[in-house]
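Hi support team,

I submitted a single chain yesterday and got back a structure, but I'm not sure I'm reading the token output correctly. Could someone confirm the output below corresponds to the sequence I sent? I've pasted both exactly as they appear in my results page.

Thanks,
R.
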Amino acid sequence: MIASLSGTVLTVGLDSLVLGVGGVGMLVHTTPATAASVRTGQSADLATTLVVREDSLTLYGFASADEKAVFETVQTVSGVGPRLALAMLAVHSPDTLRLAIAREDIATLTKVPGIGKKGAERLVLELRDKLGVVVGEGTGPAAEPADTGEVWRAQVREALVGLGWNVKQADAALDKVAPQAAEDAGVSALLRAALQELGR
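Hi R., thanks for writing in. Yes, this is the structure output for that exact sequence:
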């Protein structure tokens, strides 16, 4: 099991990055916030989980051991795989998930694409005693330089669809955050704003 990686960031996407470790470029899938917190050429330390499938080996990376623990724990619930677990952390912080489960807050849990009312109830039932108590406030990602033109729209749409929303839902959210793009907000900031719109 690859439990952590330390290396130089070679490339950064909206929800993934390539980390150079000992001459090897490792593709690591992350939340948009984690990807936005690193820069090409900088060193980065990530807690990681290697998911082994019959036809693939996929690395998932996290800014903290707490995120990694939540990612692994939520997958003990039937029907929750790595992609849905990552979507949960893209929409909510670990502490928000803990509070939602402790308070049986179905509305908060169903803001995650792919989780309906029954799925949220199953999460509450099966995770109530597994996620532990709230450990503290998370920190936001680092600021990102402004992006120009309409390139941001395609990038944010792709990330939203990858997280489980359909194109129509993604485009509706993009229309709402477009004024922020005009104010030179970065792509990761626009993605976070779109996620907030979709979570309303």
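A quick pointer for reading it: The mean pLDDT is 84. Let us know if anything else looks off.

Best,
Support desk
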